[in-house]
Amino acid sequence: MMHGLDTNVIVRYVTQDDRKQFRRADAVFTEAASSGDKLFVNAIVLCELVWVLRGAYREPRERIIPVIEALLETPEVVVEDADLARRALADWQGGRGDFANCFIARRNQRSGCQTTLSFDKALAKSTLFSAP
Questions:
Q1: Is-contact 68 54, C-beta < 8 A?
Q2: Fewer C-beta within 10 Å: the chain N or C terminus?
């Protein structure tokens, strides 16, 4: 059986800022690991997770990258477009744009786009983006 995860379940699991919800989230991961069930994280949730950790929790990139890497490596977690997420994470680690920009560009590239057009000047030096 597979269950999709909403961003808030992962946020509670990672931040442990609400003990009751953390215990419930932890039980979800523990049960999946012991039963062989899978937990699905779609691309939007992955981007939203980074956005919430950066914005609401003020976590630096260096603390978020291991969280995403752990999700990608957890056997009971299935991440949508996991290979592209890994590439986007490496792009983001390189310092240009934010994770969502990098993931968007990688997904666009897979769809045959030569580049992704953006007004974001921070992305100007990336080979994945160009100005319109």
A1: no
A2: C
